[in-house]
């Protein structure tokens, strides 16, 4: 099947209905990298028809310059998405998505007060609003999000539960470069001399993961191990290292429920986030460190992004 590029909600729903069966949605802002491609492949494995949305959502940008500089390459996105199992690309205009400046928006309280929410006021309102519109407008059976954006995933799960939106939200493992750096469209902004330093984030998280697997349960000790390891690399500005619950993103004293060990730090002038999810499987804690690529990722050479 040739991937179809459509611009309206109505046409996308029609295209989705043409192929009977379950519909999977992968929401993106375009400019796809392997993190997105792995979401598309995983969704193609479980849904009969895969819709990938490409929309740079103005509502979630606190900085107009970031929005203006956001890169786009629909042709390349279409090729990559198709090669990984997408059937329909939903690429709406701002006018299709927001015919008028919205006076109805979605705010997920409490869990957006902390960490990334505290750092980027209003950002999660923009994410929650656009994701609600995509879920209600396209009505997928499943929608896939990366665990890399852990707080965004918690926000989406919560809004779907609170608003009784009938969709199965899947959180899929972070994709990493071979050296452990989590894939992000921001990585291309890293100056060459800071690229190696950026691996300190995953090194810190993995050191803490080793301690968890060896039985450490005290949040303060787990956070300290990660922080000590990250700060061994000079020039890294740590914003936070925090062990929080997976559902509310609330600080925990002890690891006694599904949790996320999350960090944000500035490396070479670029603010990066990373995390490991700690899942409860039976009576064990299992750390999801993500999946490493064997080869260097398909990333654009020099484009800024956020
Ligand atoms: O993660 C992203 O790319 C965006 O926040 C999302 C979920 C597509 C909403 O604009």
Task: Characterise the protein shown here.
With 306 residues, the protein is α/β, with parallel strands linked by helices. It has two domains: 2-172, Rossmann fold (3-Layer(aba) Sandwich), CATH 3.40.50; 185-292, Pantoate--beta-alanine Ligase, Chain: A,domain 2. The chain has eleven helices and twelve strands. It has helices spanning 9-18, 34-46, 64-68, 74-83, 94-97, 116-119, 123-138, 150-162, 192-195, 199-213, 219-231, and strands at residues 4-6, 23-28, 49-54, 88-90, 142-146, 168-172, 175-176, 237-245, 259-267, 270-281, 284-288, 291-292. A six-stranded parallel beta sheet has the order 1-4-3-2-5-6, sandwiched between helices. α7 packs across α8 and α10 runs antiparallel to α11. The longest helix is centred in the middle third of the chain and has 16 residues, at 123-138. The radius of gyration is 19 Å and the shape is globular. The two termini are 32 Å apart. 41% of the residues are buried. Pantoate (PAF) is lined by residues 27-29, 57, 60, 127, 130-131, 149, 152.
Backbone CA Rg? 19 Å
Overall pLDDT metric? 94
Give me the CATH superfamily of the largest domain: HUPs
- Total number of strands: 12
Number of domains: 2
Read across the widest sheet, the strand sequence of neighbours is 1-4-3-2-5-6
CATH class of the largest domain: Alpha Beta
Architecture of the largest domain, CATH level 2? 3-Layer(aba) Sandwich
Which small-molecule ligands are present, each listed once?
pantoate
Helix content, binned percent: 25-40%
The gross shape turns out to be globular
Largest sheet: 6 strands, parallel
H-E string: EHEHEHHEHHHEHEEHHHEEEEE
Classify the secondary structure makeup into a structural class.
alpha/beta
Number of helices: 11
Uncertain runs with pLDDT below 50, 5 residues or more? Answer: 300-306
The CATH topology of the largest domain corresponds to Rossmann fold
Terminus-to-terminus distance: 32 Å
β-sheet strand percentage: 15-25%
